[in-house]
Structure formats: structure tokens, C-alpha cells
Amino acid sequence: MGGTSKSEQRVGLLNGFAAYGMWGLFPLFFPLLEPAGAGEVLAHRMMWSFVVVAAVLLVMRRWRWAGELLRQPRRLGLVAVAAGVISINWGVYIWAVNSGHVVEASLGYFINPLVTIAMGVLLLGERLRPAQWAAVGVGLAAVVVLTVGYGRPPWISLILAFSFATYGLMKKKVNLGGVESLAAETAIQFLPALGYLLWLTAQGHSTFTTEGPGHTALLASTGVVTAIPLVCFGAAAIRVPLSTLGLLQYLAPVFQFLCGVLYFHEAMPPERWAGFALVWLALILLTVDSLRTARRAARLRTTLAATVTAPAAAGIPAIESPTAATPAAPHVEA
User: Fold this and answer.
1) Is pLDDT of 246 > 50?
2) Residue ranges of the alpha helices (H) in 205-269?
3) What is the mean pLDDT of residues 235-253?
4) Cβ within 8 Å of residue 19, ≥6 positions away
5) HSE-up (13 A, CA, CB side) for residue 229
């Protein structure tokens, strides 16, 4: 990333803002699809997303990966798991937005980084730094406060956070590009989605052709609405550091939260503000720690580079230095 020009970084930042901004404004889009229910909207999103990404890959002639994936049952199984958990994530999110739970949905994406860290410890045996432990502890306290405030655990937030964290873990193990990964996942989703839509039509409950051409076009546009932010995210990911993307990812839940409070006028009693404040404190701890660690790693690389090149500049054979272990960049998923 060090060789990326300033103009390229500017393009990357603009694409990052565009991607997370569009994801953040999804609460304004899904209500437009009513009277279609969450299940119908989800099925259309699955089906049309596959149509869009398949068309993109067909134009770009990028299909070699598909044959390789089909010959690897383990990776294909991981893609199927990813398709399953992102279906749960999409379905719960659509239902939450159209049922007046936009703020609680935004909370799911605020706590997602904390859930991802917790899963790294529990499933991958990763070791946390003290600040990360503190952030996870504050996050747990926030869930307790919000449980008291809601009178129940914030199930919508927890389902969204855990499903998206699991999705990110599967994507990391599969290691496919963004468009290719979405194509593989929606290919698995396509037939169940199509079958459900045909069943809805047979039952007389489909709204696709009964609410006018505008409604039909909006349902069909769910594929484009899903694909465009992903394309922008891909353009950002190759141009800006992952630490920057890690900061940009908070734009989406911030916009969702503002939509819930300012546009949909959802209630925010004091105990709910207290819970969100604890979540934001945890994210501040996490972000400061990540930035500090990234700077320390950059200084270490610079020092090692100077140690290796200085003897060579003086005509002395350079001594091989051990590779410095640098902390992993924050994992960002679209």
C-alpha cells in the first residue's frame, strides 16, 4: 500500500465513503419495497443479486475460479455456510428495518467488531491485548444495560452481529474475491429463492406483478443495490490501508442509527443511550489500540529496513534480520 499515489488513495477513500454510506442508508430503501414482506424482499435480493454478479463476471470473463471451487468440497461447504448465515443476516435486517427496529439493527453492526474479536479468541485461539480485553468487557456491559433497557436481550442486534461475524470468518477461510464470493453465495441461494417466489405466486401472495411497474422495478433493483456498494468496497480495499477501512466501517451503523433516531423517530430512553454510550466507548478503545499497534508496527518495519540497508550502503554485507511479526490488520467485511 505504500506505493499507492495520493490520487489513488483519494479515489479509494471516495469509494470507501460511497460503500459504507450506501450500506448506512439501506434503512431508507427497504421500506420502499412494501407491501412486500421481509421473506419476499429477501428472496428477490438473493435472486437478482445472482443475476447482477453473474452478468458482471460474464462481461469480465472471470469464471475460472468457479471450476476450481467446484473441485474443492471443503471450500464449497464453507461457501454454503456463508450463504446460509448471510441469508439470516439479510432477512433479519430487512425485517428489523421494516418493523421499526432500525436503531437496534444499527447496534448489531456497532458490536460486530467486538463479536469478531470474541470469536477469534474462542474459535481460533487468538490472544488479545489488554485494551482489546477491556473493549470486549465494556461491550458485554453494554449488552447487559441494553437488556435492562429493552426489557429483553437485544436479539436483533445479537443475531445480526453474530451472523455477520460468522460470515466474515467463512469468507476469510474461503479466500475468494468480493464479486466472486457473492456470485458463489447467491448461486447457492438462487434456486431456493426462485422456488419460494414461485410458491408465493402460486399462493397469490406475491407482490412482484400486482403493485405496479414501479414496485416491480424496485424489487428487481435489489440486486444492483446489493452489488454496487460491494464494487465500491472492492475499489477502496485495494487503494487504502485496512486500518482506514476499519475506521470507515463505522460509517454504516452511524448512518443507520441516525436514520432510526432522526428520520424514523424511534424511541431512545436514557437507559438505551447509556447502552449505546458503552458500545461507543468500547469501539473507541478498540480503535485507539488498533491505530497505536499499527504505528508501532510501521516504526518497527522502518527500523528493520534501516538496519538491513545501512551496512549495504557502507559496502558491508547485510546481516539477515528475522522477519518482524506484525499485528494483523482489522478484518473488514462488506
Assistant:
1) yes
2) 213-220, 222-237, 242-248, 251-258
3) 80
4) 229, 230, 232, 233, 236, 248, 334
5) 19
* Coil/strand/helix, residue 129: coil
Judged by phi (left if over 0) then psi (alpha if -120 to 50, else beta), residue 26 lies in: alpha
What does the radius of gyration of the chain's CA atoms come to, in whole angstroms?
Answer: 22
Cell of 220: 428487481
Residue-wise pLDDT for 61-109, tens only, equals 888 888 888 999 999 999 999 999 999 999 999 999 999 999 999 999 9
Q: Name residue, grid cell 465500491.
A: 232
pTM of the entire predicted model: 0.84
247 burial (CB, 10 Å; 0-12 / 13-18 / 19+) is middle
User: What angle do the packed helices 222-237 and 213-220 form, to 10 degrees?
Assistant: 30
Query: How is residue 225 written as a grid cell?
Result: 443495490
Cell (9 digits) for 156: 436483533
| Short-list 20, 145, 150, 165, CA closest to 82 | 165
Average pLDDT score, the chain = 85
Q: Which residue from 40, 42, 29 is spatially nearest to 83, judged by alpha carbons?
A: 42
Q: Which three cell numbers stand for residue 110?
A: 456497532
Q: Is the pLDDT of residue 28 over 70?
A: yes
Q: CA–CA separation, 64 vs 269, rounded Å?
A: 53
Can you spell out the DSSP letters for 280-332? Answer: HHHHHHHHHHHHHHHHHHHHHHHHHHHHHHHHHHTT-PPPP-PPPP-PPPPP-
Q: Is residue 139 pLDDT above 80, yes or no?
A: yes
**Residues 296-327: b if buried by 16+ CB within 10 A, e if exposed:** eeeeeeeeeeeeeeeeeeeeeeeeeeeeeeee
* Dist. CA 50–CA 324, nearest whole Å: 42
In this prediction, residue 120 carries a pLDDT of 80
The dihedral sign for the CA sequence 148, 261, 257, 32: positive
**DSSP codes joined into one string, 66-116:** HHHHHT-HHHHHHHHHHHHHHHHHHHHHHHHHHTT-HHHHHHHHHHHHHHH
